[in-house]
Write a structure and sequence with these properties.
This protein is an alpha+beta fold. The protein has one domain (9-186): Gcn5-related N-acetyltransferase (GNAT) (Aminopeptidase, 3-Layer(aba) Sandwich), CATH 3.40.630.30. The protein contains six helices and eight strands, in the order E-E-H-H-H-E-E-E-H-E-H-E-E-H. The protein has helices at residues 26-32, 36-39, 50-65, 114-129, 144-152, 181-186; strands at 10-13, 16-20, 70-77, 81-93, 98-105, 134-140, 156-167, 170-180. It has an eight-stranded mixed β-sheet, with helices on both faces. Helix 1 packs across helix 3. GO terms for molecular function: acyltransferase activity, transferring groups other than amino-acyl groups. InterPro entries: Acyl_CoA_acyltransferase, GNAT_dom. Residues 28-182 form the N-acetyltransferase domain. This is N-acetyltransferase domain-containing protein.
Length: 187
């Protein structure tokens, strides 16, 4: 298992930063996860209250301490620091050295290459620091933007799981996309 000192709490690529989520991100989470366009294919949101947001972040921090999930805030550092989304490594399986990625960006930051940069940074954390072998994402088949994002980042389609995801009372087929350490080492 990884030691606490191996967990990267902040990493950047130029002006794009990933940093460990903190209690002070509660208002950002609450506001962002109540945006309809953002939560169509997310298992969380809309959030019921600011207290709901605080509880969510409190759980994320507990999961971090238990080495089960690592949640980051995505920030742009230009003139000011601007929070633009979140990315996580979750459902970490240390025995089989695999984990899943989850990401969301505020819609005004979509299609600007920031999702790709964020995914590439989280790959560095997963492979170089956590010593993972396999990264997985499960995306609703209709969520073409997310599928395209991960394909641009080198993920390969591995299959379809029928009626695997449930959003707003409706089942969706999930596309499984995977990125392996051997492919990371080649790049």
């Amino acid at each position: 298992m990884v030691r606490n000192s191996d967990i990267i709490e902040e990493i950047n690529d130029g002006n794009l930063f990933l940093r460990k989520i903190s209690k002070t991100d509660d208002e950002f989470f609450f506001k962002s996860l109540n945006e309809k366009n953002l939560t169509n294919y997310l298992s969380l949101g809309p959030l019921k209250s600011l207290e709901h947001s605080r509880g969510l972040i409190k759980n994320y921090l507990k999961y971090w301490d238990k080495f089960f999930q690592f949640n980051y805030i995505i920030e742009l550092h230009d003139v000011n620091k601007v929070k633009i989304g979140s990315i996580s490594l979750w459902n970490v399986n240390w025995q089989h050295k695999r984990t899943q990625i989850g990401i969301w960006l505020i819609p005004s930051f979509w299609s600007k290459g920031l999702g790709e940069k964020s995914v590439n940074l989280i790959k560095k954390i997963a492979f170089n620091h956590l010593k993972m072998n396999r990264l997985e994402v499960y995306i609703a088949k209709e969520n073409k933007k997310s599928i395209t994002l991960f394909e641009k980042c080198g993920f390969n389609k591995e299959g379809i799981l029928n009626q695997y995801l449930l959003f707003k009372g409706k089942f969706h087929n999930a596309v499984i996309l995977v990125f392996l350490k051997r492919d990371y080492l080649k790049s």
